From TrEMBL:
It is a multi-pass membrane protein. It comes from Methylobacterium longum. It is found in: Cell membrane. The chain crosses the membrane at residues 55-77, 98-124, 130-150, 171-190, 196-220, 241-264, 270-290, 322-343, 349-370, 382-402, 408-426. Keywords: Cell membrane, Membrane, Transmembrane, Transmembrane helix. This is Lipopolysaccharide biosynthesis protein. Its main location: membrane. PANTHER family: O-ANTIGEN TRANSPORTER-RELATED, PST FAMILY PREDICTED COLANIC ACID TRANSPORTER. Signal peptide: none annotated.
């Protein structure tokens, strides 16, 4: 069917579909690039102030904090983008309100439970951790529940297409406050140790989460008037827990190279490698920006049973993501000597590491939004299985390649696994939903 043969109402929806996600993606990308700039500045500052040894400790502890924080949302953050827009599209505000309330309670409860277990383990078995790691871990235990709650708030805001409110507090405000707190702490005489950096992150996370929660509550009261709440606990958890497994595997996939390096090389080498990954995040943000602007629209289009608009959305997301990833990746590589040099002298060996990581992200982007389709439209268990298998493969490749190639081996391992995962997700998403995702596909949907 051609676009000219569509009814006027469908053409209007198509124009909204085309322009809305693009504007939202540009907003998200602008915020994430800005926040990445502040994050990059804060990481440069931390590395300069602490030295590579302490910075490597901070990096290792922060990796675990972020990974657990994403996981203890139980998949309810991503689930908000799937369930809430669909309920609203069908006029069931009672169920939408119930999901938001239940998700906040379950996320907070799970985060506090995990933090309590971590605190008990640290108190009862301190010898499990090297002395230099104990104080940073103690502070990180306090940071993790705030991280988890903010992750859920981000999902709720994204479900309403409030991309600025979703992205700015965790990625722009939190990073800015962390950098300001670190400078203030050192000027006031605090030692530039890893636990001080984590304490600054704690203060920044508390302020950013409080502000985001307050603003989100005000806006939700305007779109969802007070009323009864209805709950579907079993259905929500049955769908969200596999998404939680995806989040855990994704978080592990993001940080597996740093984790394996931490077990095989010195903290200083971990810090130098982590610096390269912080620059590579500029490339990863492209997919995040487009996905953040599009996920909830998949759910709404599916609820309206509009296959044409859904296929158009998939096609545009895939091609936009790939083109922008290539452009940003090329710019990052061109500027890599300068960006790495900001961390200090002697980082020339990190340029090949950055090249490999960027090449992996670019190649993976060519396979399109397979993960997003499986997460939002059904197939989350398949997605979780593929991601978990890819995580195991990435860890195995890192273990095999690091002894021979050092930190470059970690980059090679994670890049190969990233491309393989993207290819598998695209193939499975195409078979399950009849929507081809690779950028070279014709874009037709069954």
């Amino acid at each position: 069917m051609s676009a000219t043969a569509l009814p006027v109402s469908a053409l209007r929806r198509l124009r909204t579909l085309r322009s809305g996600p693009q504007r939202a993606a540009l907003t998200v990308f602008a915020i994430r690039v800005s926040s990445a700039g502040f994050a990059y500045g804060s990481q440069v500052l931390a590395a300069r102030l602490m030295g590579w040894e302490a910075y490597g400790i901070f990096a290792s502890v922060w990796v675990w904090t972020a990974m657990l924080g994403h996981t203890v949302t139980l998949g309810l953050s991503q689930g908000a983008c799937r369930f809430v827009p669909g309920d609203q599209a069908q006029g069931d505000l009672d169920l939408a309100r119930g999901y938001i309330r239940a998700g906040a309670l379950m996320t907070g409860g799970a985060a506090l439970a995990v933090a309590g277990l971590g605190a008990a383990l640290l108190a009862l078995e301190p010898d499990l951790f090297a002395p230099a790691y104990r104080a940073p871990i103690a502070v990180a235990i306090c940071v993790m529940p705030l991280f988890a709650l903010q992750d859920f708030l981000e999902g709720v805001a994204r479900s309403q297409n409030w991309v600025g409110l979703a992205i700015a507090p965790p990625y722009l405000l939190r990073q800015t406050l962390m950098m300001g707190c670190m400078v203030a702490a050192v000027l006031l005489g605090a030692p530039p140790h890893a636990e001080v950096a984590m304490a600054c992150m704690l203060a920044a996370a508390a302020a950013a989460t409080t502000l985001q929660a307050a603003l989100l509550a005000v806006r939700l009261r305007r779109t969802m008037p007070r009323g009864p709440n209805r709950y579907r606990w079993r259905f929500w958890l049955g769908t969200s827990l596999p998404i939680a497994a995806i989040d855990l595997a994704n978080a592990g996939f993001t940080f597996v190279d740093v984790i394996v390096l931490g077990a095989l090389v010195s903290p200083a080498e971990v810090g130098i490698y982590f610096a390269a990954t912080r620059i590579q995040q500029f490339v990863v943000f492209v997919h995040f920006a487009v996905s953040a602007a599009t996920l909830q629209r998949y759910s709404a289009a599916q609820a309206q049973a509009n296959r044409f608009l859904l296929a158009e959305l998939v096609r545009r997301q895939g091609r936009t993501t790939a083109a922008a990833t290539v452009a940003v990746g090329g710019a990052i590589l061109a500027a890599s000597p300068l960006l790495l040099g900001m961390f200090g002298p002697g980082l020339g060996a990190s340029v090949p590491i950055l090249c490999v990581l960027v090449a992996g992200s670019v190649a993976a982007s060519l396979f399109g939004p397979g993960e997003d389709l499986l997460t939002m439209l059904g197939g989350e268990r398949l997605c979780a299985g593929i991601t978990a298998a890819s995580l195991v493969a990435a860890a195995g490749l890192c273990v095999a390649l690091i002894p021979a190639f050092g930190p470059l081996g970690a980059a090679l391992g994670v890049a190969l696994a990233t491309v393989g995962r993207a290819a598998l997700l695209a193939r499975v998403a195409g078979r399950v939903h009849g929507l081809p995702t690779p950028v070279w596909s014709a874009g037709a949907a069954r």
